[in-house]
Each structure stands twice: as structure tokens, then as C-alpha cells.
Amino acid sequence: MGKKRKCRMTEEERTIHDKAVKIRKMTDRQIIEYIDDIYKTGYRAGMKTSNISPDKIIDEIKKIKGIGPITLSKIKQVLEGVK
Q1: How large is the angle between the packed helices 69-82 and 54-62, nearest 10 degrees?
Q2: What's the domain of life for this entry (predicted)?
């Protein structure tokens, strides 16, 4: 397959290509910061849209056979740390 010329790229393809070139030119540190920023942005957006509270999760976990009060308290600690 031959090399695609810029003049034959659609606007969307050109935008994607330019972004890929920009990422390839980044240093390792810049790439890591870029990826971390994307992850954090997505995580925050997901948390905003989530309507599940830790209390609802704990109530459902209580129903599982074999989960005692000690394990439940450990799970609560983990969930409270995520907030």
C-alpha cells in the first residue's frame, strides 16, 4: 500500500494525523503526563455520572453469604478511601 498524501486526506484524517505526530514528538515524561491527564479527566467524569453511593454498595455486599462484619468494615474503609 502506497504512502497516503496529505492532499488526499480528509479533514478528519488530517486532524488525527496531526495529533499522532504531536504525541510522537513528546518526551517520555510528557507522554506520561498526557495519559495521566486523560485518565483523571475520564475518572472524574465517570464519578460525576455515577449515582451509586458507597452505602448502596455496602448494603448489597451485606447480602453475600460469608461476608462478616470484619470483612465488611475493611471494604467500607476501601470505599471511603476512593471518595
Answers
A1: 160
A2: Bacteria
Over residues 5-59, the pLDDT tens digits come to 667 889 999 999 999 999 999 999 999 999 999 999 998 888 788 777 788 888 9
Phi, psi (deg, nearest 5) at residue 42: -65, -40
Evaluate whether 54 touches 81 at the Cβ level (below 8 Å). Answer: no
Q: What is the C-alpha to C-alpha distance for residues 15 and 22, in angstroms, rounded to an integer? A: 11
Helix, strand, or coil (residue 19):
helix
CB 79 within 8 A of CB 61: no
